[in-house]
Amino acid sequence: MSALLQATEIVVNYPLGGGWPRRRVLRALRGVSLAVAKGETVGVVGESGCGKSSLARVLLGLVEADSGQVSLDGVAIEHGRHGSLLALRRRVQMVFQDPRGSLDPRRTIRESVAEPLQCLRPELAASQRQALVMSTLDQVGLGRELAQRYPHELSGGQCQRAGIARAIVAGPACLVCDEPVSALDLSIQGQIVNLLADLRQQLGLAVIFISHNLAVVRHLCDRVLVMHLGEVVEEGTTEEVLTSPRHPYTRLLLQSELTAEPGQPLPELPEGEPASPLSPPAGCGFVERCPVALDACRHEPPGVHEDPGGHLTRCHRWPPSTTSINSPATPLTTAALRPR
Amino acid sequence: MRLFEIRDLSIRFSTPEGAFDAVRGASIALSAGESLAIVGESGSGKSQMLLGALGLLASNGRVIAGSCIFAGHALDTGQARNPWLGRQIGYIPQDAMGCLTPHLRIGTQLCELLMRHRSLEADAARQQARELLAQVRLPDPESRLDLYPHELSGGQRQRVAIAAALAGQPAVLIADEPTTALDVTVQAQVVALLKGLQARRDLALVTVTHDLGVVAALGGRVVVMYAGQVVEEGRVEHVFRQPVHPYTAALLAARPSGRAGVEGRMRTIPGSPPQPGSIGTGCAFAARCPAVQADCDQPVPMRTGAGRQVRCHHPLDQQASRVSA
User: Fold this and answer.
1) Whole-angstrom Cα distance, residue B245 to residue B253?
2) More exposed terminus of chain B, fewer Cβ within 10 Å: N or C?
3) Under an 8 A CB cutoff, do B216 and A261 touch?
4) How many other C-beta atoms are found inside a 10 Å radius of the C-beta of residue B47?
5) Is-contact A51 A233, C-beta < 8 A?
6) With contact defined as beta carbons under 8 Å apart, do A234 and A312 qualify?
7) Lowest-confidence region among A224-238, A296-310, B175-189
8) Res A21: pLDDT
9) What's the pTM value of the predicted model, to 2 decimals?
10) What DSSP character marks residue B85?
């Protein structure tokens, strides 16, 4: 399958002020690659500060990568050329986290949904534009009577439907969804997830679904990338990554999930917080919280291991080896992953 | 005897569009050492009920009926700030960043509380502040006292907010959405901390949340709120295994299934919660209820029995049929 949208070895650093010699830099992305094919849904999971949203911005051309490239249908995006970015925006659109905040409060829903057409499809006549807006509102399940309303008159779920309408109205091939359901109530979340699944099927959309909600990712995604401190630490099919995780960080995420099953003991988790992207450690970024860290993990960044099935793991402990003398390999089982 | 109670509380907000009742006769009660979770969607009145009881409502809201009872003493909750707040009742507000003053060091803020509520001298207060931070398991408490709120991570700030609520040695701890803004890995830590404090200090713990996972992890009892009313109450394991109110059942069914490779659709509750002000006298859930019947537009009494309560004309299982109205 050839990639529709592809990011290769993306590096993004944000300067944080402070002059020479103490210029501080936040290393948001440290060489991230991602590819999504037509009709495929890729989930991106990780804690806040892991670079999920920076990745979304790079994919949309909102932030220019310091190195690495984004290509659409095999053609690299050039930030200096307006035409190149315009092509990207016609084909890749975004659904935002805050449904109300992402709509202009002084515009009606109809005006907000029509706006992308004015810049992305200027060849359309006003009447065509109007018809397209109305059919898109039908598509996302918003009644036409809501077209003349303002965002404050709509519920959170309805605003998110309007946000999705805005994203699909110009006929993109790929949607980047940044936490699209996390601001919504449980009874509404399912409606939006189902809507995204329907649209993906009807329009053959590729979807990049950024979320910290593993249950929703499990439900919706074909493949998952697990990000930690600006790197992809594990990647594979949803089934593989979320049922037989290899990286200790993926296991930590899965263990931390509070399942709504009463009577289960609370997970015993290592104390501690993610390392800071201001000063990522020399070795593996997860070493401070890792229950199975080796000496090498402190000093050497782990390489990536890819198995024939395309399951990527960035960990010194993978594949489990029996060769090391100093650190007899502990099989990477759940028992070995109990906190210290 | 119940240690802490909110009884028949009603709260009215006046807005330019007219007045509406955010809370309509809601009651909760709990004993020392007990955990009670209040769960509901946004707008269900779960936070406003507590703010009303504590006298912390926004200026356009007022308590129109009901009382707050602590250790047998009743207080007619009006506009005034609850005199027990900070001492007998510790409150952790929803926004852990917002409840800390940005330009004062953590230590200064904790010491201020300790000197005010426990009449400690400055040295003793600092000593006590350090102990509080150790109790909420903030690493290296001595040096954290000199930090400003923005120098801490979200999870650490939440811990400081919990420490501040504990400063007056309360018997009741109220936590409003303590895990909402946190990462999954930190959420479980904070729930474990609250549970540990509750057990160690024999606290009556009230937790407001919309996360069913947090409710299950906390255990104890749960109150389900919808449109300003309590619609179901019971022990967490009973309510989760066998919900009696159709809303609770639908909410539990709407959880993502959590199994990989499920091609089915997520179960949802059609429609959206009623707009405040558009609620009639009957059941507020009737418009979305799969089991709605003709008499659902009549006022619904609370049915009580067997350690459970439900506000429904047609509760779901046979246990409820044994319950008398």
Assistant:
1) 12
2) N
3) yes
4) 20
5) no
6) yes
7) B175-189
8) 75
9) 0.87
10) B
Q: Judge contact between B308 and B241, C-beta under 8 A.
A: no
Sort out which chain B residues have CB atoms less than 8 A from A154's CB and list them: none
* B216, B251, B270 member nearest A262 (Cβ): B216
The answer, yes or no, to whether ipTM is higher than 0.85 is no
What is the DSSP secondary-structure string of A229-283?
TTEEEEEEEHHHHHHS--SHHHHHHHHH---S-TTPPPP------PPPTTS--SS
Q: Is B150 touching A (CB cutoff 8 A)?
A: no
Residue A190's H or E segment, with its range, is: helix A186-203
CB contacts of A266 in chain B (<8 Å) are: 188, 191-192, 195, 217
* Residues written for chain B: 325
SS3 B267: coil
The answer to whether the beta carbons of residues B244 and B304 sit under 8 Å apart is no
Q: What does the alpha-carbon distance between residue A232 and residue A224 come to, in Å, rounded to a whole number?
A: 10
The strands making up B18-30's β-sheet, listed across from edge to edge, are B18-30, B4-15, B61-70, B73-76
Per CB-CB distance under 8 Å, the chain A contacts of B191 are 258, 266
Q: How far apart are CA A217 and CA A224, in angstroms?
A: 8
Nearest CA in chain B to A155: B272
Cα–Cα dist B20/B274, whole Å? 12
> Residues A42, A209: contact at Cβ < 8 Å?
yes
Mean pLDDT confidence for B10-26? 92
Shortest Cα distance, chain B CAs vs residue A218, angstroms: 5
Contact status of B261 with chain A (Cβ, < 8 Å): yes
B216 near A CB under 8 A: yes
Interface check A252 vs B, CB under 8 A: yes
Q: What average pLDDT does chain A have?
A: 89
Question: Which residues fall within 8 angstroms of residue B98, CB to CB, at 6 or more apart?
Answer: none
CB-based contact A47 B184, cutoff 8 Å: yes
Structure tokens at B212: 């069913």
**Amino acid occupying residue B134:** A
Q: Return the residue of B nearest to A249 by Cα.
A: B185
Place of tokens 């009892």: B221
Please write the tens of the pLDDT for every residue from B60-106: 999 999 999 999 898 876 667 888 999 999 999 988 777 899 999 99
The residue among B211, B183, B206 whose CA lies nearest residue B194 is: B206
Angle between helices A109-120 and A156-168 in degrees, nearest 10? 20
Check if B181 contacts A (Cβ < 8 Å).
Answer: no
Closest listed residue to residue B158, CA positions, set B172, B184, B138: B138
> Between residues A259 and B299, which one has the greater pLDDT?
B299
Q: Cα-flanking dihedrals φ and ψ of residue A228, to 5°?
A: -145, 125
A99, A92 Cβ separation under 8 angstroms: no
Tokens 């200027």 belong to which residue?
A122
- Rounded Cα–Cα distance for residues A340 and B99 (Å): 34
| Contact between A273 and B188 using a beta-carbon 8 Å cutoff | no
